[in-house]
Design brief:
Rossmann fold; 13 helices
Length: about 240
């Protein structure tokens, strides 16, 4: 199995440690990983802002960079969902269509493809899990609480393998944090209030760390935590799953 590691642009620029943790974790699990150096943005910011006609070059470069891999894995649910649903290529449409079915967010790759049954990791802290909207409602990483159906959470399944961790209970476990990509710019006040509510739920229930599969949401909440001078920190789930043995 050969995996192409896709590191979204905001992860590369602001949270490279999450990309490194993803690489190290996959390699620990025996996966052959390569990082195509020509990769760049997946095009999601333009598409979400109504300019999907400008994402063509991003689509072509992504298809060229990753078409030769068995799977593509990324530490970002929102970018993965965008690619799964919107990746196209005029030069090689069949390659792009095929690639859309082989792109996975890290958590779903670990649970659905590698079918992890154990992990060697240790993180002795109280952790709140943020269920990002793209992962929850798009990739179905967890069950939506409004549905009358058996509950499940792929992130929590993996985190429960981590020695010493304590996953806290939240009052509203799958509420949106308010980031929403360009929504946080277009509707700054609403986005900020939603973020403060989401952070408050974690803080009130004793979280030392907030984790999740989308660093865009974690970045939004981290900004609020810092402005509040809170000691609560955010970490991508890969960093916890890769924490010291």
């Amino acid at each position: 199995m050969k995996v192409g590691l896709f590191v979204p642009c905001y992860v590369d620029q602001f949270y490279p440690q999450a990309g490194i943790a993803t690489l190290e974790l996959l390699e620990k699990l025996g996966v052959e990983v390569e990082f195509p150096e020509r990769q760049t943005c997946c095009g999601q910011p333009m598409a979400n802002s109504g300019f999907s006609h400008l994402t063509g070059d991003c689509d072509e470069l992504f298809t060229e960079s990753f078409a030769g891999y068995d799977y593509v894995v990324a530490p970002s649910g929102s970018c993965v969902l965008h690619l799964k649903e919107h990746l196209h290529s005029k030069k090689n449409p069949s390659a792009a269509e095929d690639l859309r079915g082989r792109i996975y967010e890290l958590v779903e790759f670990l649970t659905d493809i590698l079918q992890i049954k154990s992990l060697k990791a240790r993180f002795p802290h109280k952790v709140g899990v943020h269920q990002s909207c793209h992962g929850l409602r798009g990739l179905h990483l967890s069950q939506m609480s409004e549905l009358v159906a058996p509950g499940f959470s792929k992130p929590e399944y993996l985190l429960n393998f981590v020695e010493g961790i304590e996953l806290i209970s939240l009052n509203r476990k799958d509420e949106c944090c308010g980031f929403g990509g360009t929504f946080c710019v277009a509707e700054e006040a609403v986005s900020s209030k939603m973020g403060k509510d989401r952070v408050s739920d974690h803080v009130q229930n004793g979280a030392e760390y907030i984790t999740g599969a989308d660093l865009s949401c974690l970045m939004h909440m981290e900004g609020i935590l810092k402005r509040q001078k809170s000691g609560v920190k955010v970490l991508h789930i890969a960093e916890i799953l890769n924490a010291g043995e």
